[in-house]
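Re: that chain you flagged

S.,

Sorry for the slow reply, it's been a week of failed gels. I finally had a moment to sit down with the sequence you sent. For the record, here it is as I used it:
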Amino acid sequence: VQLQASGGGLVQAGGSLRLSCAASGHTLNLYVMGWFRQAPGKERESVAAINWSDNSSYYLGSVKGRFTISRDNAKNTVYLQMNSLKPEDTAVYYCAASVLGSGQYSYWGQGTQVTVSS
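Prediction finished late last night. Pasting the structure tokens below so you have them in one place:
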């Protein structure tokens, strides 16, 4: 599985961005797709995730109510709509995917920079 992330950029606080992550290759067994972020000097953290089959989702507490993860099965694409962005959301965002039976994220996309100015 190959993942191609896009959609990062520079935005003022309070603004919005939408990240996209397109999966290609052997996508039939996709299980969970998620978004992670890593800010300078900080550990990588899980931001949101979505189950490919039942649409259940997970959100990091600090982004609940501001970020929305969604998927388009036909396009094998997952989105992260980010609203009311804050400077502390500044980070490199990565998408990741797991497949049935793996129990972990096995595939990672390249990072996309999100910078929120105050």
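What I noticed first: The radius of gyration is 13 Å.

Talk soon,
D.
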